[in-house]
Amino acid sequence: MEDIPKVVMCGLPRCGKTSISKVVFQKLSPHESMFLEGGLTKMETFSVCHNHLLRLRLVDFPGAILCDENLSLHQNDATVFGGGDCVVVLVIDAQDESYATSVSRAKKVIEFALKRNSKLTFDVLIHKVDGAKFHSEERKMECQTIIHDKLTEELADKVQECTIHFHCTSIYDHSIFEAFSKIVQKLIPEKPLLENCLQSLLDSTRMEKVYLFDVVSKLYLASDRQPVDLQWYELCADMVDLVIDIACIYGNGLEENKDAACEFNLQNGAVLILKEVGHCLAIVCVFKSDDTFDKHELLDHNIEVFKEDSPRKRVFFPR
User: Fold this and answer.
1) Which domain holds residue 169?
2) Are 91 and 180 in contact (CB under 8 A)?
3) pTM above 0.85, yes or no
4) Which pLDDT tens digit goes with each residue over 228-262?
């Protein structure tokens, strides 16, 4: 079996990790996730191969195993952390009042995994930051700070040995897609080169922001080097969703349309333009006002230049 990158999802039972994987990668409606059965007793693995950039194995690590104080007993499951590129995603239920058990188990997973692969990186999803309890961004950041400090304190001397990123997420908004975009980008070795190409595209067309989307999952696999504004990302992801829905009604879907393109003019004057650039891959460009976008031919030319200049173009954008 070809050694492709892995994303290993870990968390206590009912923390939401299974619903995350199904909402992000299997198009499950967030509201339907409430009917999922919890309490996995064995690992579940499935492949994600949408295009030549987004190819990985997603591993759902059983929460029941994490309830055991002695993780080292489960040697058969230890191999999941070894070999090839791998990111470990630790899901912590933000609705839990104390976070003590979740943080303690996260610490054990980090220590257990690092003994088997010192090159691992970790992403902590502070999940379910929705509802009345998390009515403001300040409340979400307060929760993130508490969990960050508790985990850092638990790890003590180990904190210098690993890289940990924290994200506040919910399946009921775009935060989970934005967080997973950053996670999968770590498994794309050519990401820096793609960023350079997208930055050149931005510089030559007076646009505000540009993303390279996987149109199946709505994850952005790369963007220009400017900071990502979540509001722009939400608008672009919604555009991808809408274009796919329309394409499915009138054709075979965006996945099968090799020349898909669409333009949205927003009420605030901004312009969003989508251009298909490969199998299940599309560029979405953001222009802050229609005054800055007046030449379709120039944009089309520069996107073709992007496709020609992109690293290993025949792999990324096969004709």
Assistant:
1) 6-185
2) no
3) yes
4) 988 999 999 999 988 888 877 766 555 555 567 88
